[in-house]
Design brief:
There is one protein chain. The protein is of the alpha+beta class and about 325 residues long. It folds into 3 domains: about 120 residues, Arc Repressor Mutant, subunit A, CATH 1.10.10; about 90 residues, SH3 type barrels (Roll), CATH 2.30.30; about 80 residues, 2-Layer Sandwich (Alpha-Beta Plaits), CATH 3.30.70. It is about 40% helix and about 25% strand. A 5-stranded antiparallel β-sheet has the order 6-5-4-3-7. It has a 4-stranded antiparallel β-sheet with strand order 9-10-8-11. The N and C termini lie far apart (about 65 Å).
Length: about 325
């Protein structure tokens, strides 16, 4: 905790010309004695800091010395350093920028920042999955630049059937979904989402983006993702599940599962989405101990058929 406090004191000094021990104590919710010790520790560590006594006295940085971290709290600074490590999922540009922030710290804090940068490894693979390298798509930087600058682009795009088209879009934001990247845009046909690995060309027009005043990228993406899920999993089955089986359903079906209220016999009503009746019946067949499917009838028929085949082979 102390290194967090010391960085916080340094950032506080950068925001103000002068601070007193009482102000530091109040800001960091510590005692004045602790605040004085922290200020002394900064000075002894080589931070260009001096104290003046009397009316208008306090602690100042020599010459208004700064790092480039003004406005960051200690926790925020350390969170940035955590994603700067060599094994993180940050892009090379982000890592380079964060390494510069690390080197902008005074010497006494640099070791802690570098330790934070090397303390985290992110491995997105599930156990048993092969190693797959996911590189950013070629036009990601160009589209991100268009979003930031707020300019329209002429977009070349290859759809899922291999047909190539060109259209002018208003880039609103970029979303990473697993290994895939998506561009959320407004078009003449309304809000559209484009997979960036299918983009074949990007030509900024220079014209400003038409950005809806109430647009929120996170909220818009959630609505888009929900709609895509519904299209991918159009079939919905109804069932009742023993209460102790709900946890297993959550693990197996994730957001494809909706849990309702309790039925008259104490079992829990659930809805589960799937691709088609046969595939979903195959997923549910091993859950007969906890789950009873009440509809639609074709899923029950497939379950009965699977059950008969299992009895014939293993009975």
């Amino acid at each position: 905790m102390r290194i967090d406090r010391l960085v916080a004191v340094l950032l506080l000094l950068q925001r103000r010309e002068r601070v007193t021990a009482a102000e530091v104590a109040r800001e960091l919710e510590v005692s004045e004695r602790t605040a004085r010790r922290d200020l002394d520790a900064l000075a002894m560590a080589g931070v260009p800091l001096y104290a003046t006594q009397g009316r208008g006295g306090g602690w100042r940085l020599v010459g208004g010395a700064r790092t480039d971290l003004s406005g960051l709290t200690a926790g925020e600074a350390r969170a940035l350093f955590l994603v700067a490590g060599p094994a993180s999922a940050a892009t090379p540009t982000v890592k380079a920028a964060l390494r510069k922030l690390v080197h902008a710290l005074p010497e006494p804090f640099r070791a802690h920042a570098e330790a934070a940068a090397s303390s985290l490894v992110m491995d997105p693979r599930q156990w048993g999955a092969g190693r797959v390298e996911h590189r950013p798509p070629p036009f990601l930087d160009a589209l991100q630049d268009a979003v930031i600058r707020g300019v329209q682009v002429r977009l070349g795009y290859v759809d899922g059937k291999g047909a190539e088209t060109a259209r002018t879009v208003h880039p609103l934001g970029i979303v990473a979904k697993g290994p895939s990247w998506y561009l959320v845009s407004d078009t003449e046909a309304g809000r559209r989402t484009f997979r960036i690995d299918r983009v074949s060309s990007v030509d900024p027009t220079g014209d400003p983006v038409r950005r809806p005043g109430d647009f929120d990228l996170a909220g818009s993406w959630h609505a888009i993702a929900d709609e895509i899920d519904r299209r991918r999993m159009p079939l919905e089955i109804r069932a009742v599940c023993a209460p102790h089986g709900i946890g297993l359903l959550r693990m197996g079906f994730g957001n494809r599962l909706q849990v309702g209220g309790a039925a008259a016999d104490g079992r829990i009503e659930v809805l589960i989405r799937g691709y088609d009746a046969y595939t979903l019946a195959g997923e549910l067949a091993g859950l007969v101990e906890w789950l009873e499917v009440t509809g639609p009838p074709e899923v029950r028929d497939h379950l009965a058929s699977i059950g008969a085949a299992l009895v014939e082979r293993y009975g």
